[in-house]
Amino acid sequence: MLKKIAIVLIAAGALLLAAGAIFLATFDVNHYKPQAIEWMKAHKQRTLAIDGPIGLSVFPQLAVTLSDVRLSEKLDAQGRAEPFAQIQRARLALQIMPLLARRIEVGKVEAQGVQLTYLRDAQGVRNIDDLLAGPAGAQAPATPSPAAPASAPASAPMHFDVRGVSLHNVTLRVRDEQSRVDGVATLARLETGRLASGVESPVSFDMALDFKAPAVRGTLTGRTRLQIDLDPSAGKDRADKKEKQAREERLTLTNADLTFRGDTPSLKNAQLSLKGTLALDAARSAMAAHQLQATVSGQVAGLLLDGAELSVAQLDYEPGAQKLQLQTLALDFKARQGGNPLRARLNWPQLQVQGESLGGSALSGDFELGGSTPVTGKFTSSAPAGNFTQLRIPRFKLTLDGGAKGSGEITTDIGVQPAGARVTLDKLQGSVKAQAAGQLQAFSVAGAASYTGGAAQAVQWDLRGVWGGDPYSTSGNAVLAGTVPTIHAKFELARFNTQQLMPVAQAAASSEKNKAPAGVSPAPEAIKSGATKQATTDAIDLSPATAFKGSIDASVGRLTVRNIVFESARVSLRGDGKRLDIPAFAAKVWQGTLSGSGAVVPASKSIALKGAAEGVRIEQALKDLSGRDHVSGTGRVVVDVRSAGATLAQIRSGLDGKAHVQLRDGAIKGINLAKSLREAKAALTLRKDNVHKARQEEKTDFSEISASFDIAQGVAHSKDLDGKSPFLRLAGEGQIDIGRGTIDYLAKATLTDTAQGQDAAELAALRGVQVPVKLSGPLEAMEYKVQWSAVTASVAKEALKGKVGDALKDKLGLGKKDEAAPAAPAGAPAQPQSPKDKLRDKLKGLLR
Predict the structure, then answer these.
(1) Which of 132, 413, 753, 779 is least buried, going by the fewest C-beta atoms within 10 A?
(2) What is the pTM of this model?
(3) CB atoms within 10 A of CB 274
(4) What is the pLDDT of residue 277?
């Protein structure tokens, strides 16, 4: 009976095997493509496209081959969606039988032409959340199931074993608003050997990075031997728990050789390389390194790094155990700045930290700065102190030697907080003597400063000292993270000369450039030929106005800028990274006061200025600002102007706004109206206008003068010139072309009183007569024309029309026929005269 039963079972088993074999031989997974596509659309609201064949084998390994597969993002309300994933070709084979023994054994993983997109918004919602979620409407239980008590032991971890990985042309697009990451990483090639816990495998890869945030663009290549330690027996043997736990989740790169070439936010044209052995333990945030060497080349903030090297013989860092061990740290910093070589070397033989215990050796080093002013120096310290959370390097001393150009010494206590990436400088004391502006300047500093790295990248300082014999102080903070630093700072200086910051040769050249020969103006032909066009064509760079966000307030007791001396100078700056506002500036200058506000907007290349000068000596101001002094006097100047342009010429030609000038006790230089009026006799006799070149030694004095200007497109229009003096009154209208530096103005002078001297009688006859004076030409070589022809015509016209009144007729003798006629010679008949002849005779007599 048993024999028959056995025969039946064997036959049934054979039948099942045969049926299974027939099923596997005839099963075609491609028949189920429509169902998979429909399921994805119905349950995940995504579009799945499978254009290539699907290969599937079940025994002895589960192998899947895919080609030309595309999956979209979740469909929007209009049924549209961006691509989420695309696979040109992929193959994965998983062994079946090892799964029964909780082992994952995978054949070689191969893929090429893969494109993936990862998105996360500011609220943390990801574009993969719906794919990771369970069936629609399913919810995780709020409390553990009674069948699975909390005290139940965790299941044993599974082993993994991958024969190898081969990936080609894999692209990952990332836009993470929470982490502020936006860019594309393209893995051109990744090849590995066998990947299994405790097995060392060769790994090589080539990839490209193109990120907007952070701004990283370049290539990354690597060669190493990779070992992953995920020991499944860790934690089972409690007697050996610590030793085994040390091997959990440990990743080791042996003989690593990693190289990056490209740009980073702070380093341009970078070449970064890392060589050595590096071990990382993610679970404990621990790191260990052996014979590690990092090399950096590139350009940062005007500094050209030329293969700066940092090497460490041994490093063990384990924050959880408060452990830090450092053996033979060496830095060889090589760079060039402005073509001048810079080199610094540092050596730190040993540092050991375990909790509250700290020991180690002092650090030392030296540096060299080449160029026209070479400087050498060295630095030393005492042995470090502190603990794991706070490392102190006391009595750090830096000694500078610039030969005859200067020397100095700086001491401080350095504090380091590794957890907060914070470095402090306490008890900072220093004194330096350096040559500047042709003389040896003494500089001293005292105070404290700190730097916090990481995401903050913040600097704080509170410093004071003496510069060139005058005290100064400054305090503030700056956040350097981001594209534009945020700065809040205050500066107070007793005295400052901008030439203190210039090299000797440059300061001397600047000083000579600011000296103009007395009384010498450029020749007219030079002006017309454009020999002085540098001032009108120089480009203006407004980009520094976007260099910071925040506020800067500065005050200087005595500020010298290009030989202009400002007393009690104060200025406030406010920036937002897009524009610079000057809410207020004030100073005593030119024997008066200056105050106002302004703004600079680089995006539109525009500037604006509002200001008032009270009680200033206008002659001195004009000399300092433009090298000209056409007007002298004391008074008030108010401006409210704005403009835009990329060059000084465009700024001048685009000026718009208003200005007002009111002066007293001064003179208009280049023209002497009193002298010109005394030449009236000859001019009226010849009925010819006199044209004169403006001359520095000539001037017209006034007791007060004022004018307002409407400025449009670089041309200042004025209609209300009002000048007064004991000798004359002055009115007029016209325009000054600021962009071209020319004037076209008609002044009208009226004699109000008689000057003393031999011409007094003649000038008295011109009282009340308006004399037009035309000013024209370039401001550097202005011409003025006294229009005597208009005076003669006006007087004749008024006399003939009778509009001058009886008083003028009596004065000319036109109203007294008997007395006006000259006596006829004896025996000669009397000749009657016409009114025209009488007028001509009287005008000649008036100026005889």
Answers:
(1) 132
(2) 0.63
(3) 20
(4) 95
